[in-house]
Amino acid sequence: MGAIAGFVFRLARESIPRTQAQLAQELTADLATVQGWESGRRPLANVKAGALLDLRRRLVTLGADPSVLRLLDPAMDADHLISMALDPTGSLREHPLAGWVRTRDTAHMIAWAVNGTTPPALAGRSALPRRGPVAQAPLLGAQERGAFFTHLWDTAESASRSGEASALLHRQALYLTSYDRTSEVSSWRAQTLHAGRDALTARGWTPRWAEARSTATALARLGDPQPLLDFIERSMADDDTAEAANLNYWAYWLGTSSLPQANDGFMRNRRLEGWEASFVLHALIEGFHETPGFVDLYVHSLWALVTAYRWLPLASPDFAVRLGERAETLFDGGRISPRSRRELSEVHYVLREHRT
After folding, report:
1. What is the pLDDT of residue 81?
2. Mean pLDDT to the nearest integer, 276-281
3. CB–CB of 13/21 below 8 Å?
């Protein structure tokens, strides 16, 4: 499986722009090799590390868009996860979701392959026109999608019976199941998530806090926002450790933390170090329009960030304008809770005061 990375590679080639034949000539490679990379028949992940590094540098030299090239790593990661799900081997401890906390980019790549949702980083891009039908996404076939989600659900259930050692695997597999848009399956999985909502009832920080957050966000994606609203109110608000965990996870999820994490323990760091607050602020403001089901989580996280970093408005004065544009739409649409309305007003006021 290399179709996702191959599609990203194709977008990078087209951003130069070059045809397959032209790029093959530039790289002194066979045309069949370039075609194999793009189709996934010759997965880029199988290219030797040194050769892959040289390939990336060559693409940059030729003028490929760096914002596309940076997605090759999460695309290859997504390909690996899907390949393993379609042909599972090894124990739970050896599962790729068991030993590394994934980021948003990998999740977006998986969503692209299973339901055709274009990653925000690639929004506005489309394949160049050419003769014949052109795929607009590296979409899996219906049978492969079904097998992928069945594997995730079975893995999540098995991990839930394996205790703390499989907590990360359980959380991440469970979250990824929410990308299944099949209506009857989504309804069943939402009911199953509700059945195991004991993790959502705890107040403040607990060892199962990360699991509860992922469960609440998964339910929001499946169309039920109430558990996420309850989670914000009960398991985040007014608890310093939980608020720090939320911000630390946002920073990691958004990619501003460059250190890979083997488990969720990093979230408890109340010193809020190792990531750039202004980057997180920008991403949260820009993210409102991308994920309407999670607006309340975005708003509360934005409020907590500005509360933790009082100097942030001084370093990011222009963000008040963008926040104002998005806040006006949210206020008029009535799509946020009373808490979010109050917190968003406070953040907008602080940013605007520092701007003036």
Report:
1. 96
2. 92
3. no
Residue 92 neighbours by CB distance under 10 Å: 17
Residue 291's CB: how many other CB atoms inside 10 A?
14
Mean pLDDT (the chain) is 88
Asked if residue 17 has a cis previous peptide bond (ω within 30° of 0), the answer is yes
**pLDDT band at residue 196 under the 50/70/90 scheme:** low
Q: Higher-confidence residue: 321 or 65?
A: 65
Q: Which two tokens stand for residue 219?
A: 């339910």
Per-residue model confidence (pLDDT) at position 346: 87
Predicted TM-score (pTM) of this structure: 0.91
Phi and psi dihedrals of 61, rounded to 5?
-60, -35
Tokens read off for 255: 């990619």
**pLDDT at residue 222, rounded to an integer:** 83
Spatial neighbors of 307 by CB under 8 A, at least 6 apart, are none
